[in-house]
Every structure is written in structure tokens, then in C-alpha cells.
Amino acid sequence: MTDITQHELTNQPSRLKIIWQSDFGYTFRKSPVAVFSCIIVLILVMSAVLAPLIAPHNPFDPGTLNLLNGFTPPLTPNAFTGEEFFLGTDDQGRDIFSTILYGMRVSLFVGFSAVLLAMILGIILGLIAGYVGGWIETFIMRVADVQLTFPSILVAMLIFGIAKGFTPVEYRDQMAIWVLILAIGLSDWVQFARVVRGATLVEKNKEYVQAARLIGRSGAAIMLRHILPNVMSPVLVIATISLALAIIAEATLSFLGVGAPPTQPSLGTLIRIGQGFLFSGEWWILLFPSITLLSLALSVNLFGDWLRDALNPRLR
Amino acid sequence: MIAYVIRRVFHSMIVLLVVGLVAFAMFRYVGDPIDNMLGQERTQADIERLTEQLGLDQPFVVQYWKFLRNAVDGNFGVSYRQGRPVAEIIAERAPATLELATVSGLFAILVGIGLGVFTAIRRNGVASNLIMTLSLIGVSLPTFLIGILFIYVFSVELDLLPSFGRGDVVQVGNWSTGFLTKSGLLALILPSITLGLYQMTLIMRLVRAEMLEVLRQDYIRFARARGLRERAVNFRHALKNTLVPVITVTGLQLGSIIAFAIITETVFQWPGVGLLFINALQFVDIPVMAAYLMLISVMFVAINLIVDLLYFAIDPRLRIDGRTG
């Protein structure tokens, strides 16, 4: 018996291969939009993660900056130093390409963490609302309804303002990134909670849940080990679409000056800075961060659209 | 029907009470109001006087009740940063935001319905397809990038329209209006299109989808068979029946226009309430934040309520259901 399982285990194809050969993998390979957007996302995420290795300069090390390099247009040697920069430099001689790589790190970190926070919160509240029911459900869903009345960017702004008020002045810049994650995460949990609750209401009457209850598993175990795996696929779709929204929300907040601080600029902060040079003709300081933000948000969005269609059996 | 109205009004009241509680808690517990208002040079007597004046020595419920009563009277306290009553500052800024929101709302509704009908009638035309594709791109672009793009094209390159501010305004009583001067009207164009673009595409897509649905139905074919003119069929028969969902969405989007005005106002340095709110956020000016929160929630809740009640006015089927059910 043990021999057979051992044998089966060693001969089993890797998990990645199983996914690649499944229906899911097939629809992925057959969709140019999905493959293309996935590749773009991967390239952007990898270059953000590997920023310290790829970036030609460290934009936050003042020692490597040369003020004479300021306002160098892309791919043109600087008039004073003769140095050339792929995407040009800003007013202080920072390499735009490097600041974009580091900025994308901040944008992606905030985006992923905020969605993770919203997802965890939404799943827990949704499971409890759907499985336990009663006044807890009424309460959670009523709060969700009220929050849904307001645009989430407004909710994020308010949470940001309140949290900022609670942080001591000297820590505000350091904490800004975490406050931002909290604000976007808390403004976005409702979608997850609604979907998880809806799916839980369906799942909890199925036989496997009743069986689990019969053998005496606790409510928490049933919710997390039995129901949760079966409600995950809509959650994943929402998470992908939320990621695009969270990246844009972060960029918007930072652009408005209520997000990432100038010491840790995200793509939104870079665009905010670039807007100041729009009238003096230094277009590259504004253009390249904007294009990066757009391709990031657009490709995540396209991938999310495809994922929704692929995971939704009704549309197949 | 009456029971439904009462229930909806009751729900709205509860939402407002909760929002009021949040606003009050912000005012009371985020930072120390006494610290913020008195600054460094203060005496114990000052502190006691202000504590009593603000009622900070009273029980929580009493303070909350007072805060709500003051808010209803339009008294939101004094801005920490500007040292003037918040109500006064907001009243001064409100015309700018309301004019911007009105113009972009009108733009969204008129152009949205117009393009929606057009793309539905000529559903396979080149122009329709172009409009649909462009609208998809427009929805994916963040608002602030659209604003910057407009500034770049129309202000920097073409030098046709102003890139910031309201232009010249005329004071009519307490209301400062930009509608009466040429520069004021020119200054409205870019911000209102930026602000209304998203809502415009939304309305357009909705009208198009609804029109396509309605145009397939028998009574439209019958109207055509009666020899009615194309225009009469499209507008008097088809469009009229698509309006229920359009009104709902438009109504709900009205609130979003006010909220998203924050972004547009920042891009175009439009001296409205949104810019005031963003500045308050940056400097943690709690009374301004609390007042803005209260005002915008009253607006949102009122819009939701009105839209819900409008259903009854527009769709006769709902009225019958409401009476029997």
C-alpha cells in the first residue's frame, strides 16, 4: 500500500504541469489577451522586485546624484557631464528609469497588501455572516451596505485622514505607507464579504457541510477548511480586479498628496511631481511614470477580465 | 407605499446618525481639540474656559447630541488651520464645486444619452465602434491622468483653454458665479469634461444596452409599421422606455460627481470644496474634515432616497406592487 502511494507520488506530474494541461490552462494558452497581459504584469512585477539589481542608479542615495545632470532629456547626452539616461532625469539629476522602478515597488507593495487585507477581512466577515447568520449577519451586511453608498476612494481618504491624525507628527512620513494600505484595504472589503456570504449561504446547506457538522467539527473548522476552499474562485477574480483598482486608488491618493510621502515616492507621487514640469517642457518626467501606471493597471485589469470569464462556468 | 417611504426615511436617518457619530468621534478623539485650538502659549484658565465652551467635560452622549444639534444649525466649529468658522469657509467654496458638478452632470447626461442612442441605432457603423472603443479606454484611465492629458493638449500645446482656476467670477449676493464671464465659462470646459467623462461613458453604455433591448420589441416594430417617422420611433417610443435604469444610475452617479470633484479640483486647482477637503486632509484639519463628511453624507443619503422614491413616480408597475404588497 505504502509502496503504491510512493510510486504514484513520484510519477505524479508537478502541480504547475497539472494546471497547464487542465481546461483552465488550455483557455489561458488560447487567449492572446490573457497571455499578453500576464507577461506584461510579470515583467513589471519582476522589474519592481529586482529594482535594486536592475536600476542603474539608486535614486534615494543623494551621494550618487549630480545636480549638473538635472533635466537631461531621454537618450540625449547631458550638456555638462556627457552622461546619457535611458528615460532622462528630473530636476535633481535623478534617473527617471530608476525612480520608476523604485516607485513601482511602492505601488505594487501597497496594492498587493491592501488587497490582501481587504480579502482577509472580507472572507472572515463574509463567512461569519453567511454561516452564523442572525443579528451578526444583519449587522455586518448593513455596515457593508452603508459603506457601499460612498465611493471607495472617499472612504479611503477619510480613513487616511483619521489614521494620520492618530499618528504622532514625527512618524507620519514613516507610517504613511502602512496608513495607505490600511485605508485602501478597509475601503475595499465589502465586495469580498458580499460574494463570500452569498456563496457560503449556498454551500452551507450542502451535504458535505452537514456531514462535517455531524462528525462534530467546530464552526470555525467548517468555515475555514470546508466552505472556504469552495468559495475561493470568485474571491480570486475579485482580488485581481481589486488589485487594479487598488493600484489606481493608491496612485490617485499619492497624486493628491495624501498618499506615499516624497521620501518613498510611488508612481502617483512621481506623476504629481511630473505635473509641475508640464509647462516648462520637461515632458519625460511626467510621461514615463504615467505610461508605467497605465500599463500596470490596464494589464492587471485585462487579466482579471479573462480570469472572470475563465472561472465562470456559466460563460464557458 | 407609505410604509415603504417611512422605512426608507428611517434607514436614512440611522445612516446619518452613524456618520454623525464617526464625524463626532473624529473631532473629539483624533488629536486633542484643546491642543489644536490653543497652541503653545496657553494658561490653565484658557484650557478650562475652552473645555467648558466646547463642553468637553460633559458625558459622551450629551456631547454627541450637542455636536449633532450644532451640525443641523450649520455650526461645524472653527478650522484649526485657518482659524475661521468652517461653515463660512465651506459656504464660500460651495458655489465653485456646485457649478462644476452641474455642468459636468449636464455634460454626462446630454452627451451620454445622445451618444448612447446614436451607437444603438447605428450599431455596426464605423463611428459607433470607434466611440465604443474610445469609451473603454476612457474608463480605464484614472481621472487625474485624463485631466493632465487635457491640460497638456488644450492648454500647453494648443493654448486654447485655461489650465487652472475659475477665471473671472461675478459676485451675485453670496454666490460667486463663473457663468457670467467669458473666462469663467472657458475655465469650466476642461474640468467639467474631465469630471463628467466617466459618468458620460457609463450613461452611454447603459442607454445603448437598454436601447438595443427595447428596439427588438414588438411595439417598436408596430410603431414602424404604422409609418411613424424614424425619429419619433427612436426618441418617443424607444428612448422613453429606457429611462428608468438610466435615471437610477444617473442619480446615484450624481453623488460620485461631487466626490470625484476632489480629484478634478486638485488637478485644475479649482477653488472648490474638494480642494478644501484635500488640504484639510494634508494638514489634519479635523473640523473641516468632519464637516465635509457630514455634508457629503447628507447629500449621498438624500440622493439615494430620492432615487428610490423616483422609481415609484416613473414606473407605474412598481406603484401597483407597492400598494398590494
Q: Strand share of the residues of chain A?
A: under 5%
The multimeric state of the shown protein is: heterodimer
> Over the alpha carbons, how many angstroms does the gyration radius of chain A reach?
24 Å
Q: What fraction of the residues of chain B are assigned to beta strands by DSSP?
A: under 5%
Helix share bin of chain B: over 70%
Shape of chain A: globular
CATH fold label of the largest domain in chain A? MetI-like fold
In the predicted model, the low-confidence regions of chain A spanning at least 5 consecutive residues are: none
**Principal-axis shape of chain B:** globular
Number of strands of chain A: 0
Structural notes for this entry:
The complex is a heterodimer of chains A (316) and B (325). Chain A is 72% helix and 0% strand. Chain A is globular and about 80 Å long. With 316 residues, chain A is an all-alpha fold. Chain A has helices at 2-11, 15-21, 23-29, 32-49, 51-54, 96-132, 134-149, 152-166, 172-186, 189-203, 207-214, 219-255, 267-275, 283-311. The mean pLDDT of chain A is 83. By secondary structure, chain B is mostly helical. Chain B has a domain at 93-283: Orthogonal Bundle (MetI-like fold), CATH 1.10.3720. Chain B has helices at residues 2-29, 33-38, 44-54, 60-72, 86-121, 126-140, 143-157, 182-215, 218-225, 230-238, 243-267, 273-282, 286-314, 316-324; strands at residues 170-172, 175-177. Chain B starts with a helix and ends with a helix. At the A-B interface, helix 8, helix 12 and helix 14 of A face helix 1, helix 7, helix 11, helix 12 and helix 13 of B.
